[in-house]
From TrEMBL:
Keyword Hydrolase: yes
GO molecular function: hydrolase activity
Domain of life assignment: Bacteria
Organism classification: Bacteria, Bacillati, Bacillota, Bacilli, Bacillales
Classification via Pfam families: Peptidase_C26
Protein name: Gamma-glutamyl-gamma-aminobutyrate hydrolase family protein
Swiss-Prot/TrEMBL keywords: Hydrolase
UniProt cross-references to InterPro entries, sorted A to Z: Class_I_gatase-like, Peptidase_C26, PuuD-like
Source species: Oceanobacillus longus
Presence of keyword Hydrolase: yes
């Protein structure tokens, strides 16, 4: 029997009230945990910590999912904050930026959704559009695909989906501006917003998505295939 891959899932910090007291809690969307379990992985939630611990997490995990959440601090890509910048989390950036770099150095498979795409791009030297001029984010229920993307035929995403178009469930107010040199565009929206990126090197699994396969895999075979391919990459690493 194959050893199940250990897949790290990044998290944030959320204040919760317990008996009248505010307590900081480790927080991640349970759907990430559920999706990893469903595809045969062992989910491990990675708490916000520091660079030294990031090295330990990479040594522990066979793959890492960078989850959605706060905006990446624009100072991380040498920009001043715009008026439209939303909540940032300095400590989370301090953990996840080196986590990306150490994972890439060790060729640990990584996948990012929404903020996860942003942190991957920024960690590898790219920049972000701090706010989209047009309303490119959906207000609908995230478990429903609401817009179409165009997939590059020479991309790994095309081989996974088997189609040049797909319906996805993006919900974001930022987007990739300058793409990191080690990444390539895998898919765009009808208004040319980058919806998916991947590693230029085909022997390394890096996938950044503006959409959320963890919310759709139960009803969309393409999203399930994507997550299963990620698990397979993690198995090889493990």
């Amino acid at each position: 029997m194959k050893k199940k891959p250990i897949i790290g899932i990044t998290s944030s910090i959320m204040d919760i009230e317990i008996k009248g007291e505010i307590n900081p809690a480790v927080h991640t969307n349970h759907q990430y945990v559920k999706s990893v379990t469903e595809i045969g992985g062992i989910p491990i939630v990675i708490p916000v910590s520091n660079e030294d611990m990031a090295k330990e997490y990479v040594n522990l995990c066979d793959g890492i999912i960078f989850t959605s959440g706060e905006d990446v601090d624009p100072s991380r890509y040498n920009q001043d904050p715009s008026d439209e910048l939303q909540k940032i989390n300095f400590a989370r950036d301090e953990t996840e930026l080196p986590l990306v770099k150490y994972a890439v150095d060790k060729k640990i498979p990584i996948m990012g959704t929404c903020r996860g795409l942003a942190i991957i791009n920024v960690a590898l030297g790219g920049t972000m559009k701090q706010h989209l001029e047009s309303e490119h984010h959906q207000e609908a229920y995230r478990k429903l695909p609401t817009h179409e993307i165009n997939i590059e035929e020479d991309s790994q995403l095309f081989h996974l989906f088997g189609e040049k178009k797909a319906m996805v469930n993006s919900k974001h107010h930022q987007a990739v501006d300058q793409l990191a040199d080690s990444l390539t565009v895998a898919a765009t929206s009808e208004d040319n917003v980058i919806e998916a990126v991947e590693a230029k090197k085909k022997n390394q699994f890096i996938l950044g998505l503006q959409f959320h396969p963890e919310e759709l895999f139960a009803v969309d075979t393409k999203m399930l295939n994507l997550l299963m391919r990620f698990r397979e990459a993690c198995e090889k690493k493990g």
